[in-house]
Amino acid sequence: MTYFNIAIDGPAGAGKSTIAKKIAKQLGFIYVDTGAMYRAMGLYFLRNQIAANDKASIEKSCQEVNVTIEYKNGEQNVLLNGENVNGLIRTEEVGNMASASSVYKVVRLKLVELQQNLAKRENVVMDGRDIGTYVLPEAQLKIYLTASSKERARRRWSELKEKGITSDMNEIEKDIIERDHRDMTRDFAPLKQAEDAIYLDSSEMTIDEVVHKILELYKIQKEKDV
Ligand code: DC
Predict the structure, then answer these.
(1) Is the CB of residue 175 below 6 angstroms from any atom belonging to ligand 1?
(2) Shortest CA distance to 12 belongs to which of 197, 145, 185?
(3) pLDDT-based confidence at 2, cuts 50/70/90?
(4) Looking at ligand 1, which atom is closest to the CA of residue 12?
Protein backbone atom coordinates (compact mmCIF):
# COMPACT_ATOMS: atom_id res chain seq x y z
CA MET A 1 0.00 0.00 0.00
CA THR A 2 1.23 3.45 -0.85
CA TYR A 3 0.64 6.13 1.72
CA PHE A 4 -0.24 9.71 0.87
CA ASN A 5 2.54 12.11 1.83
CA ILE A 6 2.14 15.87 2.07
CA ALA A 7 5.39 17.84 2.30
CA ILE A 8 5.33 21.41 3.61
CA ASP A 9 8.59 23.31 3.45
CA GLY A 10 9.43 26.92 4.10
CA PRO A 11 11.38 29.34 6.26
CA ALA A 12 11.05 29.85 10.02
CA GLY A 13 7.82 31.45 11.15
CA ALA A 14 5.82 30.95 7.95
CA GLY A 15 3.14 29.09 9.93
CA LYS A 16 4.07 25.61 8.74
CA SER A 17 3.53 23.73 11.99
CA THR A 18 0.18 25.35 12.87
CA ILE A 19 -1.09 24.72 9.37
CA ALA A 20 0.35 21.22 9.01
CA LYS A 21 -1.21 20.21 12.35
CA LYS A 22 -4.65 21.40 11.27
CA ILE A 23 -4.43 19.64 7.93
CA ALA A 24 -3.29 16.40 9.57
CA LYS A 25 -6.20 16.58 12.00
CA GLN A 26 -8.77 17.17 9.25
CA LEU A 27 -7.43 14.35 7.09
CA GLY A 28 -6.67 11.93 9.91
CA PHE A 29 -2.98 11.90 8.92
CA ILE A 30 0.03 11.84 11.24
CA TYR A 31 1.76 15.20 11.64
CA VAL A 32 5.55 14.95 11.58
CA ASP A 33 7.43 18.00 12.84
CA THR A 34 11.00 17.49 11.60
CA GLY A 35 12.20 20.80 13.06
CA ALA A 36 11.53 19.35 16.53
CA MET A 37 14.02 16.55 15.77
CA TYR A 38 16.75 19.06 14.80
CA ARG A 39 15.86 21.05 17.91
CA ALA A 40 16.31 17.95 20.11
CA MET A 41 19.78 17.49 18.61
CA GLY A 42 20.45 21.22 19.19
CA LEU A 43 19.41 20.84 22.83
CA TYR A 44 21.83 17.95 23.24
CA PHE A 45 24.73 20.07 21.86
CA LEU A 46 23.82 23.01 24.12
CA ARG A 47 23.55 20.83 27.21
CA ASN A 48 26.92 19.26 26.48
CA GLN A 49 28.52 22.61 25.63
CA ILE A 50 29.38 21.55 22.12
CA ALA A 51 29.85 24.57 19.88
CA ALA A 52 28.14 24.68 16.47
CA ASN A 53 31.52 25.03 14.75
CA ASP A 54 33.03 22.00 16.53
CA LYS A 55 32.45 19.55 13.70
CA ALA A 56 34.45 16.70 15.26
CA SER A 57 32.44 16.73 18.51
CA ILE A 58 29.18 17.05 16.62
CA GLU A 59 30.07 14.06 14.47
CA LYS A 60 31.11 12.05 17.51
CA SER A 61 27.93 12.83 19.42
CA CYS A 62 25.82 11.71 16.48
CA GLN A 63 26.98 8.19 17.30
CA GLU A 64 25.94 8.56 20.95
CA VAL A 65 22.70 10.47 20.76
CA ASN A 66 19.38 8.83 20.09
CA VAL A 67 16.42 10.84 18.82
CA THR A 68 13.09 9.04 18.45
CA ILE A 69 9.49 10.10 18.37
CA GLU A 70 6.29 8.71 19.78
CA TYR A 71 2.67 9.74 19.41
CA LYS A 72 0.40 10.15 22.42
CA ASN A 73 -3.16 11.46 22.00
CA GLY A 74 -2.26 12.57 18.49
CA GLU A 75 0.66 14.72 19.76
CA GLN A 76 4.23 14.16 18.61
CA ASN A 77 6.69 13.72 21.47
CA VAL A 78 10.39 13.96 20.70
CA LEU A 79 12.57 11.76 22.85
CA LEU A 80 16.22 12.60 23.35
CA ASN A 81 17.93 9.48 24.70
CA GLY A 82 14.54 8.42 26.00
CA GLU A 83 13.65 11.77 27.66
CA ASN A 84 10.60 13.66 26.41
CA VAL A 85 12.06 17.09 25.54
CA ASN A 86 8.96 18.66 23.94
CA GLY A 87 8.75 21.32 26.64
CA LEU A 88 12.41 22.34 26.30
CA ILE A 89 12.99 22.86 22.59
CA ARG A 90 10.86 25.89 21.70
CA THR A 91 13.35 28.60 22.72
CA GLU A 92 15.21 30.92 20.30
CA GLU A 93 18.49 29.53 21.66
CA VAL A 94 17.57 25.97 20.76
CA GLY A 95 16.14 27.06 17.38
CA ASN A 96 19.35 28.84 16.46
CA MET A 97 21.46 25.88 17.56
CA ALA A 98 19.22 23.56 15.53
CA SER A 99 19.75 25.75 12.47
CA ALA A 100 23.52 25.96 13.01
CA SER A 101 24.05 22.23 13.67
CA SER A 102 21.69 21.04 10.93
CA VAL A 103 24.23 22.13 8.31
CA TYR A 104 26.21 18.94 9.02
CA LYS A 105 25.48 15.96 6.82
CA VAL A 106 25.87 13.46 9.71
CA VAL A 107 23.20 15.25 11.71
CA ARG A 108 20.84 15.32 8.74
CA LEU A 109 21.31 11.72 7.66
CA LYS A 110 20.58 10.50 11.16
CA LEU A 111 17.21 12.26 11.22
CA VAL A 112 16.26 11.78 7.57
CA GLU A 113 16.16 8.01 8.05
CA LEU A 114 13.70 8.38 10.92
CA GLN A 115 11.55 10.74 8.83
CA GLN A 116 11.51 8.47 5.77
CA ASN A 117 10.58 5.43 7.86
CA LEU A 118 7.58 7.26 9.32
CA ALA A 119 6.31 8.23 5.87
CA LYS A 120 6.57 4.63 4.69
CA ARG A 121 4.19 3.43 7.39
CA GLU A 122 1.57 6.20 7.56
CA ASN A 123 -0.22 8.95 5.69
CA VAL A 124 1.75 11.97 6.83
CA VAL A 125 1.85 15.74 6.72
CA MET A 126 5.54 16.44 7.26
CA ASP A 127 6.97 19.93 7.63
CA GLY A 128 10.56 21.13 7.49
CA ARG A 129 13.08 22.61 5.08
CA ASP A 130 14.06 19.74 2.76
CA ILE A 131 11.02 17.46 2.81
CA GLY A 132 9.91 17.96 -0.80
CA THR A 133 13.44 18.17 -2.18
CA TYR A 134 15.28 15.50 -0.23
CA VAL A 135 13.37 13.53 2.40
CA LEU A 136 10.21 12.68 0.44
CA PRO A 137 10.91 13.49 -3.21
CA GLU A 138 7.93 11.30 -4.20
CA ALA A 139 5.43 13.11 -1.95
CA GLN A 140 2.10 13.42 -3.80
CA LEU A 141 1.57 17.01 -2.65
CA LYS A 142 4.32 19.53 -2.00
CA ILE A 143 3.79 23.02 -0.63
CA TYR A 144 6.38 25.76 -0.28
CA LEU A 145 4.93 28.04 2.38
CA THR A 146 6.48 31.41 3.01
CA ALA A 147 5.72 34.96 4.19
CA SER A 148 7.71 38.19 4.24
CA SER A 149 10.35 38.43 6.97
CA LYS A 150 8.51 41.48 8.38
CA GLU A 151 5.28 39.57 8.73
CA ARG A 152 7.02 36.53 10.22
CA ALA A 153 8.76 38.78 12.77
CA ARG A 154 5.46 40.46 13.60
CA ARG A 155 3.81 37.05 14.22
CA ARG A 156 6.65 35.89 16.46
CA TRP A 157 6.58 39.19 18.35
CA SER A 158 2.85 38.87 19.09
CA GLU A 159 3.26 35.21 20.09
CA LEU A 160 5.85 36.31 22.66
CA LYS A 161 3.66 39.22 23.76
CA GLU A 162 0.81 36.82 24.44
CA LYS A 163 3.15 34.89 26.73
CA GLY A 164 3.95 38.17 28.53
CA ILE A 165 7.42 38.46 26.98
CA THR A 166 8.44 41.85 25.57
CA SER A 167 10.79 41.73 22.61
CA ASP A 168 12.22 43.91 19.85
CA MET A 169 10.57 43.24 16.49
CA ASN A 170 13.59 44.46 14.52
CA GLU A 171 15.87 42.10 16.43
CA ILE A 172 13.50 39.21 15.71
CA GLU A 173 13.47 40.08 12.01
CA LYS A 174 17.28 40.23 11.95
CA ASP A 175 17.39 36.78 13.55
CA ILE A 176 14.88 35.40 11.05
CA ILE A 177 16.85 36.74 8.08
CA GLU A 178 20.05 35.24 9.46
CA ARG A 179 18.37 31.84 10.02
CA ASP A 180 16.83 31.90 6.50
CA HIS A 181 20.23 32.64 5.02
CA ARG A 182 21.89 29.76 6.87
CA ASP A 183 19.09 27.29 6.06
CA MET A 184 19.08 28.31 2.37
CA THR A 185 22.80 28.36 1.73
CA ARG A 186 24.08 25.21 3.47
CA ASP A 187 25.72 22.72 1.12
CA PHE A 188 23.66 19.67 1.93
CA ALA A 189 19.86 19.65 1.43
CA PRO A 190 19.31 23.42 1.79
CA LEU A 191 15.89 25.03 2.02
CA LYS A 192 14.57 25.65 -1.48
CA GLN A 193 11.32 25.23 -3.33
CA ALA A 194 11.05 21.81 -5.03
CA GLU A 195 10.33 22.11 -8.75
CA ASP A 196 6.96 20.44 -8.32
CA ALA A 197 5.99 22.31 -5.13
CA ILE A 198 3.16 24.82 -5.02
CA TYR A 199 4.25 28.25 -3.77
CA LEU A 200 2.03 29.86 -1.15
CA ASP A 201 2.74 33.26 0.39
CA SER A 202 0.80 33.51 3.65
CA SER A 203 1.70 37.18 4.38
CA GLU A 204 -1.82 38.34 3.53
CA MET A 205 -3.69 35.13 4.36
CA THR A 206 -5.26 33.85 7.56
CA ILE A 207 -4.34 30.42 8.89
CA ASP A 208 -7.76 29.08 7.90
CA GLU A 209 -7.40 30.43 4.35
CA VAL A 210 -4.08 28.63 3.95
CA VAL A 211 -5.51 25.41 5.41
CA HIS A 212 -8.52 25.63 3.07
CA LYS A 213 -6.27 26.19 0.06
CA ILE A 214 -4.04 23.20 0.88
CA LEU A 215 -7.07 20.95 1.47
CA GLU A 216 -8.39 21.97 -1.96
CA LEU A 217 -5.04 21.11 -3.52
CA TYR A 218 -5.09 17.79 -1.67
CA LYS A 219 -8.51 16.91 -3.13
CA ILE A 220 -7.33 17.65 -6.66
CA GLN A 221 -4.18 15.60 -6.17
CA LYS A 222 -6.03 12.73 -4.53
CA GLU A 223 -8.38 12.47 -7.51
CA LYS A 224 -5.42 12.33 -9.89
CA ASP A 225 -3.78 9.70 -7.70
CA VAL A 226 -6.56 7.06 -7.88
O1 DC B 1 11.12 24.51 11.86
P2 DC B 1 11.99 24.83 13.09
O3 DC B 1 12.12 26.29 13.38
O4 DC B 1 11.53 24.06 14.30
O5 DC B 1 13.45 24.28 12.70
C6 DC B 1 14.60 24.56 13.46
C7 DC B 1 15.83 24.45 12.58
O8 DC B 1 16.05 23.09 12.22
C9 DC B 1 15.78 25.20 11.26
O10 DC B 1 16.23 26.53 11.37
C11 DC B 1 16.67 24.39 10.35
C12 DC B 1 16.58 22.99 10.91
N13 DC B 1 15.73 22.12 10.08
C14 DC B 1 16.29 21.56 8.97
O15 DC B 1 17.44 21.85 8.66
N16 DC B 1 15.57 20.69 8.21
C17 DC B 1 14.31 20.38 8.52
N18 DC B 1 13.65 19.49 7.77
C19 DC B 1 13.69 20.97 9.64
C20 DC B 1 14.42 21.86 10.41
Answers:
(1) no
(2) 145
(3) confident
(4) 3
